[in-house]
Amino acid sequence: MNKLAFIIDDSAVNVAVARLLLRRLGWVVEDFDSAIPMLARLAEVQPVFMLLDISMPDLGGEEACRRIRANAAWNGVRVIAYTAHAMETERQRYLAGGFDAVITKPITIGGLHAAVGHAPND
């Protein structure tokens, strides 16, 4: 089974915490501090899911999600909004924009498990 997950966030602290939790759950993790290199890597390998930060300096998570959803080859990738901006109106906008789930920062193992749905060995 594919055990690969991507984390895309420009905050090293947020990446480190998410990486630690995902590895604890059994995922193999690749992380990116920007959406642009993640999109290039996505053309080579597809993760089961990605945690995609909404607010990044080069290409925001919403635009990155639109680009992912526009490519039929990437339809199987679960895209999870990873954000501190989680008012109900924002959550609904993210879901309507193509995200599969929303995780609010700071991330917890319970929130991660709920958004991902399973560990790679389940």
Query: CATH first level: which class?
Result: Alpha Beta
Shape: globular
Q: What portion of the residues fall into strands of 2 or more residues?
A: 15-25%
- For the secondary structure, the number of strands is 5
Pick out the low-confidence regions. Answer: none
What is the name of the CATH architecture?
Answer: 3-Layer(aba) Sandwich
> Helix and strand string, N-terminal first?
EHEHEHEHEH
Distance between the termini: 10 Å
Q: What topology, given as strand order, has the largest sheet? A: 2-1-3-4-5
**How many helical elements?**
5
Polypeptide structure, described:
It contains 5 helices and 5 strands; from the N terminus they run E-H-E-H-E-H-E-H-E-H. It has 122 residues and is α/β, with parallel strands linked by helices. It has a single domain (4-116), classed as Rossmann fold (3-Layer(aba) Sandwich), CATH 3.40.50.2300. Helix content is 39%, strand content 20%. The relative contact order is 0.21. It comes from Thauera aminoaromatica.
